[in-house]
């Protein structure tokens, strides 16, 4: 309007006769021909004392000065402002030509008009789909209800058009929150100025806008605490049928807004439903739809908007949709506005996110925000290393947030890190935060094939299993950086002294309750770097006399990853004996390639027992008087037939002192002969067992291990076997006796198949319960020749192939290959 109408304004100014409006003095008004302005002088509020308007010596009740006309008039009283008002109408037609945009001038200026109440009316017509925006640059506006007046008497009355019908958007005073009103299909602004107002500016501008596709959008800006009352269009009359009106609210992030409906009524809907819809930052379910009689949202942080949607009304009895509501903006009331300092300036790899817990609430909840410096608030913040942060919260329920942190500990130079230890500790600044620390992850990176990791807890850990779940308020989740390898979840109060991890891994402290750190004073997990080894993991456990120790293969039911090995170093305290029990009879693993096997090895004697996990039944409960290894290596299983083992260890005081068989007397007694053979093999084993452990087989090495059933058989036939100490005396001896023609007793049947062929069909079974006393077998110094050993010697254990296997050596690919590249780097 500005540019285009400047000349008009100047012309008007020049044409106006600034005569005295008082008393009988005459006033002359000239309106230029092309100004599109019409000035009306008419009676205002009725008054008791009469006052008359004269023009051309005629008494008139109303005077109209059209463009191109000049009129002079006078009043019969001294106070015409109490009787007469001016209305200055300007029509702007933008249907054909572009709208004049910009600051809207007051034409004519206040000072150039008689001192009467005056109303400037701008009537802008546009095409149906054209949007227009009114901006109130000066003081923002406050909406008032019908019949309410403004303290300074200045009001804006804003209307729009729907299909040529005028719809009243509202009446507004100064000193409010409304900064912009967007309309479509034209608008009408009536600015009322009382006669004593010397105001010379309209206080608003017009800009064009894309179609808003609704009746109007009223924008309110809050800069601080405050409130606004707003009304639906046409209030208190009915909202136009099937219309949509939106209110937008700009609220500083550190404040909170609440909506309350002060007055509303609904119409009789024939189609659709009358409703309000909110767009609320931080809400996962926008738009939030409410009925008018619902409680409306409160404690919202950030900008939001609210839309009123009408319906198709019943023509017989439409009723009226109307709404008067209040938005209250204030400091958060429900939580302390405490500030937490999180100093990450000394950190290089620690980053922390505070974010909403992914728990979609069925119903709308007020925004929950994290603020930095109390100013910038957002539903989620991430604190990067290297800076210091002041964190506060705008959230009535801090349990809706949690914190997730990640720190990288990486060793790039293996010579430097080797044997170095680093505590895995959550910094106090993170612990003090009033939100749950969901996860604190340490990414532990080591140079490939150079170093491995050792996790040493301050207090022994328990593996979370179904049988013995962790119920502590936090646990460590340990996973390999290799995808699909999850070692398990561990909490304090168990038997695991150390966890060794082959390669890059992550340890995640996950908490389940606030204040978890008070449960265990001083978090305690230390990582150190050791020379590389090839098992995926080695667990060092010292069972507790008081409780069962449950252990489970990594990855739970998803199965141990293909071709990987895991070992458990199980310490048996002196004076105790351990019973090792597997939860099931068979693993159910089906190998596509490679072999899945388990070795149980007594550490002191190195005696070992090998089980094919694909073919054999798992061992029955077995006793161990000395520390032993449980080493499990997986093949590459067929999908769905994964390797997944659960076993447990219990300790009992030794009931019998060492049962040592010392005497080997050569000659006829087959029992003794057999014993001699066993001892021989143990000795032999000791001699040859200098290669690295079977457990190191993993990756391709494992696949190539030709542990076919045939080989097992052969090994046994060659008497390259040794008996592991879990076999109960009578069973072993009984079988030996039987095999060498004795009839000592008939052992129980075991389901172990591959060995049946050559040895007869009745291998003995291990003791059925843990209460039986096992026999420890000993090495003896005079080994009888092993080559002549009968195949029956080892009914359900089988041999560790060895270099001493004589003629069979060539057919054995050793389990252990010292030449294997990738041995532990020392
Ligand atoms: C002039 O305006 C004031 C305030 O808006 C109002 O009270 C008064 O009645 C008006 N006068 C007439 C004649 O309408
Ligand atoms: C309105 O009056 C103020 C001073 O009262 C003046 O600075 C301003 O330029 C005037 N505006 C117009 C459009 O005349
Ligand atoms: C506003 O009007 C100008 C000039 O007529 C035009 O170039 C512009 O695209 C319009 N903007 C909108 C949002 O309609
Ligand atoms: C309402 O707010 C949402 C989210 O802030 C926004 O996407 C949407 O465009 C807004 N609607 C209106 C009409 O302002
Ligand atoms: C803390 O809250 C009180 C009361 O709500 C308020 O007056 C004060 O300004 C707030 N302080 C900060 C730093 O926001
Ligand atoms: C472990 O991480 C380090 C550093 O990112 C990388 O150099 C190394 O190759 C990774 N090791 C493995 C086995 O991927
Ligand atoms: C956790 O479980 C152990 C037994 O496994 C029990 O003794 C202890 O009381 C439990 N603690 C809690 C907090 O439930
Ligand atoms: C096995 O565990 C015992 C007891 O914790 C420990 O002394 C021994 O060094 C471990 N053996 C290996 C090879 O880690
Ligand atoms: C079992 O695994 C441990 C640790 O990897 C190893 O020291 C030991 O030699 C292995 N035992 C056998 C028989 O492979």
UniProtKB/TrEMBL annotation:
Residue stretches of biased makeup (Polar residues): 799-810
Matches recorded under InterPro entries: CDCP1, CDCP1_CUB_3rd_6th, CUB_CDCP1_1st, CUB_CDCP1_2nd_5th, CUB_CDCP1_4th, Sperma_CUB_dom_sf
The species this protein was found in: Heterocephalus glaber (Naked mole rat)
Name of the protein in its database record: CUB domain-containing protein 1 isoform X2
Recorded superkingdom: Eukaryota
PANTHER family: CUB DOMAIN-CONTAINING PROTEIN 1
Pfam families named in the record: CDCP1_CUB_6, CUB_CDCP1_1, CUB_CDCP1_2, CUB_CDCP1_4th
Signal peptide: 1-26
Regions crossing the membrane: 660-682
Keywords noted in UniProt: Disulfide bond, Membrane, Signal, Transmembrane, Transmembrane helix
Domain CDCP1 third and sixth CUB residues, every copy: 215-317, 534-648
UniProt KW Cytoplasm keyword: no
Region (Disordered) residue spans: 754-826
Lineage: Eukaryota, Metazoa, Chordata, Craniata, Vertebrata
Primary gene name: Cdcp1
Domain CDCP1 second and fifth CUB stretches: 106-208
